[in-house]
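Quick illustration for those who missed Monday's session on complexes.
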Amino acid sequence: MTSDRLRSGGFGLYIHWPFCQAKCPYCDFNSHVWQHIDQSRWTKAYLSELDRVAAETPDRVLNSVFFGGGTPSLMEPETVDQILSRIRANWPIANDFEVTLEANPTSVEAQRFAGYRQAGVNRVSMGFQALNDNDLKALGRLHNVSDALKAYEIAQEVFDRFSFDLIYARQNQTVTDWEKELRQALAMGPTHLSLYQLTIEEGTAFGDRFARGLLRGLPDEEVAAKMYEITQALTVEAGLPAYEISNHARANDVSLHNLIYWRGGDYLGIGPGAHGRVSIGKDRFATDTELAPQVWLQQVETLGSGEKSRDVITKYDQGLEYVMMSLRLAEGCDLDRLAEISSNQVKLNNINKLESLSLISRENSTLRVPTDKRILLNSILAELVA
Ligand SMILES: C[S@@+](CC[C@H](N)C(=O)[O-])C[C@H]1O[C@@H](n2cnc3c(N)ncnc32)[C@H](O)[C@@H]1O
Ligand code: SF4
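Prediction with iron/sulfur cluster bound:
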């Protein structure tokens, strides 16, 4: 039996909807543009997957569900309703059960918000990306600022909890531009914000343009670091400090689902390309699914499972993963929990050295990376697990 301690990261369910209306040039998520999607066929496949994973985790209390994508706001409310009904039938649900759906802020999608709420969604996360029409165009977005503001208004009317995403360090963006935009975003009174620095991913249109020297005007590292610094200062001032590298919230508005990932909790992943981490009996498994939507769908229909692989995670790797995830968080890494998760197999190095450089802080059994240094997390981790 898995101990309560190991389960204390929580238990969530991620559902991947792999379709979008258009592919954004910076995006390397598993997203595809299809002309026609037979939603009743897809619904059946998701329900079958839910039954499969529920049979393995019958006694677990579910803390959260996250519909991610792709663009889950292209799902019919009826599809979401059927999935959530099956989830409620399959697992005991926590009192503060969180159900988030990622939404693109076009007008058509915002009109579905009431239906999603009816189905049981209680939080939306909207991809605004920029608050300036020229930049939205350059990012290949199908919405403009006015659509985003309208979607925000509708979200405010329909949901108690909502968040939006912005991407900074965009082409030709100055520190002052970003400061102005972020102030504008904060003046809208959000209680949760995800603020990501633009990453140029290989295999995307931006990645190709960048490799050919054609993606001009990207802020250099120093400017991007300054933008990160300003982001921390302004969000703290507005009462939304970072609880994770890119996520900011008022104290009661952190995303419970994302915390499960960063606290090393268990989560099931269903849908094309979704992965999971799940403790069954005395082992913890990493699960992966078929990436291509058509292959996933056919595999679920013919073999009764969309799972592609399932591997036992060694105690050492569990510990390593916990260190890497938890140090993203303001609350940091609980060294007692690390010892238990990894059966004392992960020994961290250079703690004193990193402490003397103010790159980490240690308080009793908690290790933290200070907010202003979290942008250096990869180098810090390299020292810790050297
Ligand atoms: C799963 S994605 C997209 C959700 C939704 N389809 C949308 O585009 O609004 C979640 C978020 O990741 C961020 N993101 C995606 N690609 C990124 C990149 N290359 N650099 C920085 N942020 C990125 C965007 O802010 C996006 O809203
Ligand atoms: S950023 Fe969002 S809308 Fe754009 S392709 Fe990626 S998942 Fe789809």
